[in-house]
Amino acid sequence: MLTISQRGYEMPASPIRKLVPYAEQAKKKGLTVFHLNIGQPDIETPKPVLDAVRHSDFKVLEYSHSAGNESYRKKLVQYYAGKGIDVNHQQIIVTTGGSEAILFGFMACLDPGDEVIIPEPFYANYNGFAVEAGVKVVPITASIETGFALPPIADFEQKITPRTKAIIICNPNNPTGYLYSREELDTLKEIVKKHNLYLFSDEAYREFCYTGTHFSAMQLEGIEDHVLLMDTISKRYSACGGRIGALVTKNQAVLDAVMKFAQARLSPPSFAQIAGEAAIDLPENYFDTIKEEYLKRRDAVVSRLNAMPGVTCPNPGGAFYAVVELPISDSDHFCQWLLESFEHNGATVMMAPATGFYQTPGLGKKEVRIAYVLNEDAIHKAMDCLEAALKVYPGRTL
Amino acid sequence: MLTISQRGYEMPASPIRKLVPYAEQAKKKGLTVFHLNIGQPDIETPKPVLDAVRHSDFKVLEYSHSAGNESYRKKLVQYYAGKGIDVNHQQIIVTTGGSEAILFGFMACLDPGDEVIIPEPFYANYNGFAVEAGVKVVPITASIETGFALPPIADFEQKITPRTKAIIICNPNNPTGYLYSREELDTLKEIVKKHNLYLFSDEAYREFCYTGTHFSAMQLEGIEDHVLLMDTISKRYSACGGRIGALVTKNQAVLDAVMKFAQARLSPPSFAQIAGEAAIDLPENYFDTIKEEYLKRRDAVVSRLNAMPGVTCPNPGGAFYAVVELPISDSDHFCQWLLESFEHNGATVMMAPATGFYQTPGLGKKEVRIAYVLNEDAIHKAMDCLEAALKVYPGRTL
Fold first, then answer.
1. Cβ-defined contact of A8 to B239 (cutoff 8 Å)
2. Which residues of B touch A112 (CB under 8 A)?
3. In chain A, which residue's Cα lies nearest the Cα of B20?
4. How far apart are CA B396 and CA B398, in angstroms?
């Protein structure tokens, strides 16, 4: 018998995309589906960013440098300098989305059987890349009671083994929206220094901070060799389809190894590098408008949710997600039921069951992730649906 | 000590790109460097293909479907039908270049420690993806005496172990230019059937056949579940920077597994999918012009090379490469010397030492790979350089 690989079996299906067939059925029935399930912003990609591609005038769509166009990397140096991150263009490797930066980080720093600690709930695809790299994910549970703050240092120490090689944080966090403080980053610094670990910092949502300011892992002094920054233009400029990210580090041995992985896949996409380069020249106030919009959405979501009986929604400091506790006992069932068996004013709502963001079995069953990527009016309609649904859902616990 | 991974060390550096710093130095000295070292065609990307991107009018650069836009996959079905390959759009997963198709194939079909047999010399990056996937490459040596034809079936049988899971061919071949015959594909069919193996067929150069016609592994009857086609638009439409390829198979279990890997990285690049879709509508005769151009170049290269004392160049049936035997004993040294210490009429030539295309240590030391991706005039000038160099190279063996 011809069989697929073991890792092909072990590879998790996307918890975010698995409900898609039910959403398609709901739409076929004529329902409006409010998509709060996926981090695809509705914000328009800035026109100058798209225009840079549309007005490009090269004749051959060539491979770029495996590390990305030098002109783009030099622009990124400027961008990072503006964020208080001091790097040169040789410390930046342009990747195919932030996804590839994560995979390259695993490949370059960890061997099969090595362990990576990740506070859960976490971005589900870390798991997928870990399976690809043969790396074992060791979760540390963050709690909704603290708004998903960094778990205590003792929890980390307890999980560290001789095979532990790295810690991943996503800051601000997908799926919780939690923004790590300077103090929490200092705590992480002590842990990685003491135990000689890498710190992978996924900062895809750096610009989306509503409460407090962003402090990057790249700004931690004294652990420069330990830190790998995983970045992407996807959310920042609403350019998810470009598939342009970056891996940034001052660790030369890691850069050399990552460069070999980058060479094997030849180059990152050329069109979107042009877009990414143009994006650096957007006016300073570009993010102000976007942030204002997201802030309104966040406030709408959080206040509506917390007004529902039995619902707890911490106030997220950044990104455009919230993990919310509902008066239910099986979030997978609830999210599917919303699409299959519920409607309110001709509409329903799609959310991501939080179970897919936890590694520890059994966690997240009362929680869902909400991505507030719709306009305020749509958000209110979606909240109306959810509120009505929680009154009639047969599996409600209130 | 913070260390990188073992696979980071094992990962081979690109044999094609490692001479780049020497080429840069040569250019700084004012020399013209004829690049016969890399498969970056100078052919212009067809205007309608670039225009499709330039005239696109979406407002949000969104993620596409993880398997690629359905409209593009449906167009690809048409394209394949025109090549005698009968597939539906659900059997096609659009990838980020052919590179990702190869990696996904390894990931979905082989586990760490499993073995893949590849006739050598072979495309060097197969090695890189094998290291990433923890797969062991087992080479079978093809010989310049037979023009790099498929090695005898007995050679395969001898290398097959319980860990052997797949055979990779590149047809027509990079780096040798060899075009596998229908009979050779039938031989492969018998081997994979008998030993229950996957057959990965990299057909990036399908359109570039000068002697004989292309017969795809997808056309082999009775082993539909065994065959994975790795494809790309890079060479076909001179669109290397687009980073759009495809993995095509009728094996549903493999498709399901690959889909999970595809979901983890979210989506292939959106801009170049638009380009790829437009490319399917190019007029039928598009490839005739291109092929005519490459044929002239091939004939120029082959005749010039075989006229040089001690040089053997088989006549490649396809692609735009040739592996050539030279009267030298160390091709790495020779290629570096050409860039560092030689000039002829203000120019020199850059080629890829064939050592990087062999897995068996010690092979390829007398051989180089030439990519005939320059126009005829440049090719003649490059051949003038090579001819002059072989007369004065201190390491020559004639």
1. no
2. 112, 134
3. A65
4. 6
A221: helix, strand or coil: coil
Contact (CB, 8 A) for B219 and B84:
yes
Distance CA B202, CA B170 (A): 4
Work out the angle at residue B206's Cα, subtended by the Cα atoms of residues B176 and B247, and round it to the nearest 5 degrees.
105
Cα–Cα distance for residue pair A173/A316, rounded to 1 Å: 9
- Give the CA-trace dihedral at A8, A13, A17, A23, to 10 degrees: 100
Is some CB atom of chain A closer than 8 A to the CB atom of B125? Answer: yes
- Give contacts of A 20-79 with B, CB under 8 A: 40-45, 49-50, 53-56, 58-64, 66
Name beta bridge partners: B166. B116, B198
Half-sphere exposure of A71 (CA within 13 A, CB side): 10
Q: How, if at all, do strands B321-325 and B367-371 pair?
A: antiparallel
In sequence order, what DSSP letters do the residues of A92-137 get, joined into one string?
Answer: EEEESHHHHHHHHHHHHH--TT-EEEEEES--THHHHHHHHHTPEE
Measure Cα distances from B225 to A9, B199, B248, B255, B320 in Å. Answer: 17, 9, 11, 11, 30
**The two structure tokens encoding residue B55:** 């005239």
Alpha-carbon Rg of chain B, whole angstroms?
Answer: 21
Residues A356, A359, A362: CA angle, nearest 5 degrees: 75
Residue type, A19: L
Determine contact, residues B37/B352, Cβ cutoff 8 Å.
yes
User: Mind listing the pLDDT tens digit of every residue in chain A (398 residues)?
Assistant: 799 999 999 999 887 778 989 999 999 999 999 999 988 888 999 999 999 999 999 999 999 999 999 999 999 999 999 999 999 999 999 999 999 999 999 999 999 999 999 999 999 999 999 999 999 999 999 999 999 999 999 999 999 999 999 999 999 999 999 999 999 999 999 999 999 999 999 999 999 999 889 999 999 999 999 999 999 999 999 999 999 999 999 999 999 999 999 999 999 999 999 999 999 999 989 999 999 999 999 999 999 999 999 999 999 999 999 999 999 999 999 999 999 999 999 999 999 999 999 999 999 999 999 999 999 999 999 999 999 999 999 999 98
ipTM beyond cut 0.85: yes
Rounded distance, CA A103 to CA B92, Å?
A: 23
- Distance between CA A180 and CA A159 in Å, rounded? 20
Q: What is the pTM of this model?
A: 0.96
State the DSSP H helix or E strand holding residue B65, giving kind and residue range, or none if neither.
none
Structure tokens at B371: 């990519």
Strand order in the sheet with B367-371: B321-325, B367-371, B352-353
CB contact under 8 A, B271 and A266: no
Domains with residue ranges and CATH for chain A: 6-44+286-392 (3.90.1150.10), 47-279 (3.40.640.10)
- Angle, helix A286-306 to helix A376-392, in steps of 10 degrees: 20
At A116, the amino acid letter reads V
Bridge-partner residues for B129, per DSSP? none
